[in-house]
Amino acid sequence: MADEKVQTKLLDELEKGPWPSFVKEIKKARKVSPVCDDLLGQLELSYEEKVGHWKHGGIVGVMGYGGGVIGRYSDVPEKFPNVAHFHTMRINQPSGWFYTSNALRTLCDIWDRHGSGLTNMHGSTGDIVFLGTKTDELEPTFKELTAAGFDLGGSGSCMRTPSACVGKARCEWACYDTLKMCNDITHEYQDELHRPPFPYKFKFKFSGCPNDCVASIARADLSVIGTWKDDIQQNDAEVAAYAAKGLDIQEDVCGRCPTKCMKWDGKKLTINNRECVRCMHCINAMPKALAPGKERGATLLIGAKAPIVQGALLSSVLVPFVPADELMDTIKELVSRVWDFWDEYGKNRERVGELIQRVGMGNFLDAIGLDPIPEMITAPRDNPYIYFKDEA
Amino acid sequence: MAAEPVKRITDIGPPNYEQFLHPVIKKNYGSWKYHENLAPGVLCHVAESGDKIYSVRAASPRLLSTTTIRQFADLAEKYCGGYLRWTSRNNVEFLLDNPANIEPLKKELLALGFPVGGTNNAISNVVHTQGWVHCHSSATDASGIVKSVMDALYDRFTHEDLPAKLRIALACCLNMCGAVHCSDIAILGVHRRPPKIKHDILPKVCEVPTLIASCPTGAIRPATVDGKQSVEVVEEQCMFCANCYTVCPAMPLNDPENDGVSIWVGGKVSNARSAPKFSKLAIPFIPNEPPRWPGVVDAVVNIVEVYAKNAKKFERMGEWIERIGWPRFFELTGIPFTKYHIDDFRLAGTTYARSTHIRF
To answer: Are A154 and A69 in contact (CB under 8 A)?
Structure first.
């Protein structure tokens, strides 16, 4: 029996308890591939020794692509020869992570033929992750994937696989078509995705409203976050219905409004839309009564990243509002200017956000040809060290 | 004549999502009117046309076998025409047009070990990284901690009784491929000892100038060791970020006794009410305690429960802490405040208290 091949005393503890168990998943995949036994064995060793046993990836991949495969090797291959190579393939997910059962079965069949039978649904950037195969299985897997209509995602210093929230497919708050935008941008920049051309990674994330369900403002070099320009759509009868059902509109809606732009007199909600910053709180609290306005589009923000190298950054405003129907053209134009400047001035492994920190937002705006506007800052500078230029 | 070589297919990009959309979604695309939360893990979206689509959301361990994915496919075929999706937090969502199928589907999911929940004011699934399952630079495991923490917080996934949303994320090193830096509670693997330089292989596997440039504090300097070109590390300047290891495999930081986990709180990405914010340090270090990480589990459960008891309705973790102030957060949670909590990297001064606004 496969189950007796490897002792997993510590890992067995993680089969207990009500939350779904990844150890159970690895054990299920033993029927698919014997590599899972060695994976369990090596993982058990990590649990005993409190240290990982994977080595740095080498350069592995499929022909003609510079990314999409993460090389992974065991540092104890003599003990666990079946995971001596255990490479990951990133497969570009469909926008919004929508599937049919048939599409999933196709993916499972391909992976069972060529790999470990283990996946991540999904990886942190959004790709379908095929977890663990040998070097000589990469090309055959790729061939079957492309024949089935799937392609690899990004890795390394490329445009990483873009991702999008559920958008107009199932959300009344989507202020632009995130799924289409994500799909179109991914197809537009296939070369940049598969053949790393940049100083470092570049991520797009498309959120349909300021709730930002794909964490665009924290994780994307270019964050595209839906918003609207006109007034919040309001249904007074439904507002009253929420009040009747016990929602404390004064305390929990008006009281939590960041600009205090709304009033509740016990019967009617009055919103001063000119003061509204489109935070979504009142709409989140009363989805049947309030909705984003009709003049919809997106805010473009730039520069988010996790800490490595110079510290974490959130994206900051670049263009406060782009109408939904102009979004594609505006993003393409802007991105070409940003990439040109980054190509020329970015240091090795310097994200766009770090480059902006280093050269200054003012210089960056000059370089990409955008005028500075007060929406880009929380406050003007409070130090007098100004690099005045001789502009006379 | 040789046969024409078969053209290799490349650069086709992802399959178009439209072919995977439920007919009700396709028909009402962009015309949704509002939604209701029918139960934890069950949403009903209503279109302008009056059509309804029901979503049933279940947890997954993210690491899924093809066996389980096929089980999800079976369920989707049985209950919703084969249409399903995943959320940005690794939950699987079944999309139903017939509400009569909700309860039977929930029952089957639960029987398979996949609880339904994670909506509204519940703790949704944990976004996390690979850990010891697949990563070379991890300072801790990922899946094992997530499993242990969520076993303890299971009822918080299946019930929606928190003051607001609560998002937990885990990254097993500072690279943060899970980008945990804006989570209500972030669990972050940390190293605490400088790299142990492998001088024998360094010149063969690393570019020295790239390696030196990789250090954010300039702690790496060129050196000659045993007549060979290598580097040395000014250890007082090392803050254990492991960026050097990312560019050079001869600089490992892994250390069984000194690696572990830090806990961060109060971040968010949503713009609702307050602006998006970073998570802040709550606990600088908890040792790695496989297989069940009791120290991490207790710490996270404590923070969740103190928050649940004290925050007001609609207050996210960070908003609650800003209202009561950090001194009271440390007092209420019983977490000791140390010098490690005070920032000393770039722009550290922006986090010093620069007013006399003090709660006594």
So the answer is: no
Q: Is the pLDDT of residue A1 over 70?
A: no
Q: Please state whether the peptide bond connecting residue B14 to the residue before it is cis, i.e. omega within 30 degrees of 0.
A: no
Q: Is A172 on the interface with B (CB under 8 A)?
A: yes
For strands A204-207 and A222-228, give the pairing: parallel
Q: What is the ipTM of this complex?
A: 0.96
What are the backbone dihedrals phi and psi of residue A22, each rounded to the nearest 5 degrees, phi first? -70, -25
Test A169 with B21 for CB contact under 8 angstroms. yes
- Please report residues of B whose CB lies closer than 8 A to that of A291: 34
**DSSP conformation letters of B30-55:** T-EEEEEEEETTEEEEEETTS-EEEE
pLDDT digits (tens, 9 = 90+) for B285-333: 999 999 999 999 999 999 999 999 999 999 999 999 999 999 999 999 9
How far is it, in rounded angstroms, from Cα A123 to Cα A104? 16
pLDDT bin (cut points 50, 70, 90) of residue B196 is very high
User: Does this model's pTM top 0.90?
Assistant: yes
Residues contacting A265, CB < 8 A, separation 6+: none
Q: Is B25 on the interface with A (CB under 8 A)?
A: yes
Please say whether the dihedral angle defined by the alpha carbons of residues A103, A106, A112 and A114, taken in this order, is positive or negative.
Answer: negative
- The string of pLDDT tens digits covering residues A86-125 is 999 999 999 999 999 999 999 999 999 999 999 999 999 9
Element spanning B317, H or E: helix B317-324
Would you call B325 helix, strand, or coil by DSSP? coil
Radius of gyration of chain B (CA): 24
